[in-house]
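Hi P.,

Sorry for the delay on this. The queue was packed all week, but I finally got your sequence through. Input first:
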Amino acid sequence: MKLAVFDFDSTLMEGETLEFIAKEYNIEPLMRQITTDAMEGKIDFFESLIKRVALLKGAKEEKIKYICENLPYTKGAKETVTELKKMGYKVVCFSGGYESATVPAQYSLGYDAQFSNILHFKNGEMTGLLGGEMMFSDSKGKMLKRLQTLLNISENDTLCVGDGANDLSMFKFASKRAAFCAKPILKEHANIIINNKDLTELLNYL
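Then the structure:
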């Protein structure tokens, strides 16, 4: 058995979930700037997460659900997941985003499991709060180590794919480290670099 772990926003999915939501509420530029600073490692990921979600306090739950269930997936995402599973990989999504998006994507793309954060709603509206498993800059690395231990999979049989600074922590524990249309900070630590937005190119390196 081998393990392939993918980031969600801007990796399996074409863009950032919160920016799609922010666009509906006319705060996209501010949201994008905070996201960019976090992905480039300029500000702490946890702090950026709290700031971004707080901006959407009062957003309607039904609208959030609709947006998250209709996000555009990256070219080749489904095909890549399918091929990796044929090659004996367990395919998992680690997302600093939200299960409102990663759970529907699991059904669409076919990956085996997802670990993400959870937006908090009350009376049909976002409270601006959240919780979950992927809230800190080192969360992905810690979860990866737990999965490797649980599944008895070595670093040599682990592939990680991401685009931003919060993916660095999982790169430490994988022999195959793919930077997909990534920020410079992640490319520095990758041994697979893909600059074309087609995930099937990843298969050429395996």
